[in-house]
What does this fold into?
Amino acid sequence: MGKFPEKKARSSRKTMEVPEIHGEVPEKIKEIPEIHGEVPEKTMEISEIHEEVPEKIKEIPEIHEEVPEKTGEIPEILDEVPEKNYADS
It folds into this structure.
C-alpha cells in the first residue's frame, strides 16, 4: 500500500503544472471560430462554379470528334518514313 501513494503524489505534482499551460490555450482557440464563420460564405460560391463546369465539359467531346480525322493522316506519313530509313542504311 505504500507504493500507491507515492505514484499518486508524483502524478499530482506533474498535473498541477499542466493546467496552467492549458489555461492559455483555450483563449487562442476562441479566436479561431471567428475565422471559420467566414469560411462557409466562401464555400457557397464554390457550388455556383461547379454548375458552370459541366457546360465546359460538354464542349470537350466535340474536339475529340475532330481529332481522329487528323490522326488518320499521321499513319500515312509513318509508312513512308521507315522505307526511307532502310534505304539510307
About this structure: The radius of gyration is 36 Å.
